[in-house]
Amino acid sequence: MIGIIAAMNVEMESLRSHMENTETDVISGIRFVRGTLEGKEVVTAVCGIGKVFAAMCAQTMIMHYTPDRIINTGVAGTLTDKLNIGSIAVSTAVVQHDIDTSALGDPVGLISGINKIELPADRLLSGQLSACAKVMGIKTESGVIASGDQFVASAERKAFIVDHFKAIACEMEGAAIGQVCYANKVPFCVLRAISDSADGSSHMDYPTFVKMAAEQSVALVRRFMRC
Ligand code: SAH
C-alpha cells in the first residue's frame, strides 16, 4: 500500500475523487481515506499546514496502515530559476531550514540526536516520479526540498535557504514527513508543483496559482499510479 499525504484539501480533493472502494477513519482529527487509485492500494490523508501536523499524520499513517512507501504531494515555492510556476520539484533529500542550534556551534539545519541535516528520499521512488513527470512533458528538477514553519515570502529568506542547503523548493511539511519516515524506515519522496516564487511576490502568486499547481501534482501522482 502506498501512503499519500497532502497538507491541504486543494492538493487532495481531486485525487480522492478518482479513488474507489473507499473507507474512512478519523484519527486525532485527521481523516484517512483508504481505497484504490488506478487499481493500486492507497491510503490518503490531508494533514494540515506545518511540520507538527505533518509529523502527526505520517506517524499515525505508518502505525495504522503500514504503507510500504509514502509520497508527500502538493505545492511549494521555487528556489531556482530552473523551476517556474507549474513545474515540478522532486526530492532527492529533505531538510528543515528552520531548525537552528547554531548558537551552540551546530550547523544550521542539524537535527540533533540523529545528527543529520539532509534526510535522503527513496532513490527508486524519486527516480520513478521524475521519469513520470518527464513523460508527461512537465518541467522537472530533482534536488533538496526545504521545509519550515513559515511561508517563505522574501528574497532574504529565499537566499538564506539556498545558501545553506542548496534547496530547489520550499514548503512546510515534507521534511517532517521525511523525518518520521526515516525513524520508521519507510521509503518516502516529496513531490511539489510550484505555486509561487518564494519572494516578495509570492503572496500574490500563491492565491493565483495554488489550484493550478495542486492539479499538476495530482496529475503526476495519478500517472505514477498507472506506471
Ligand atoms: N492559511 C493558509 C496557509 C497556506 S501555507 C491555508 O490554510 O491555506 C502554504 C502551503 O503551501 C503550505 O502547505 C506549504 O507547504 C506550501 N507552500 C507553497 N508556497 C510556499 C512558500 N513560498 N513557502 C512555504 N510554503 C509554501
What this model shows, in words?
The protein has 227 residues and is of the alpha/beta class. The chain has a single domain (2-226), classed as Rossmann fold (3-Layer(aba) Sandwich). Helices cover 35% and strands 32% of the residues. The chain has helices at residues 13-16, 51-65, 123-135, 155-165, 174-184, 202-226, and strands at 2-6, 19-27, 30-37, 40-46, 69-78, 88-96, 119-120, 140-147, 167-171, 188-196. A 5-stranded mixed barrel has the order 5-9-8-6-10, surrounded by 4 helices. A hairpin with a 2-residue loop joins strand 3 and strand 4. The radius of gyration is 16 Å and the shape is globular. The two termini are 15 Å apart. S-adenosyl-L-homocysteine (SAH) is lined by residues 7-8, 49, 74-77, 151-152, 170-173, 195-196, 198, 202, 206.
Strand order of the largest sheet: 5-9-8-6-10
Structural class: alpha/beta
Low-pLDDT ranges: none
Number of domains: 1
Largest sheet: 5 strands, mixed, barrel
The unique ligands bound to this protein are:
S-adenosyl-L-homocysteine
Concise synopsis of the structure shown:
This protein is an alpha/beta fold and 227 residues long. The chain contains 6 helices and 10 strands; from the N terminus they run βαβββαβββαβαβαβα.
Q: Could you outline the blueprint of secondary structure elements for this entry?
A:
Blueprint: E1 2-6, H1 13-16, E2 19-27, E3 30-37, E4 40-46, H2 51-65, E5 69-78, E6 88-96, E7 119-120, H3 123-135, E8 140-147, H4 155-165, E9 167-171, H5 174-184, E10 188-196, H6 202-226
Parallel strand pairs: 1-4, 1-5, 5-10, 6-8, 8-9
Antiparallel strand pairs: 2-3, 3-4, 5-9, 6-7, 6-10
Helix pairs in contact: 2-5, 3-6
The protein binds S-adenosyl-L-homocysteine (SAH).
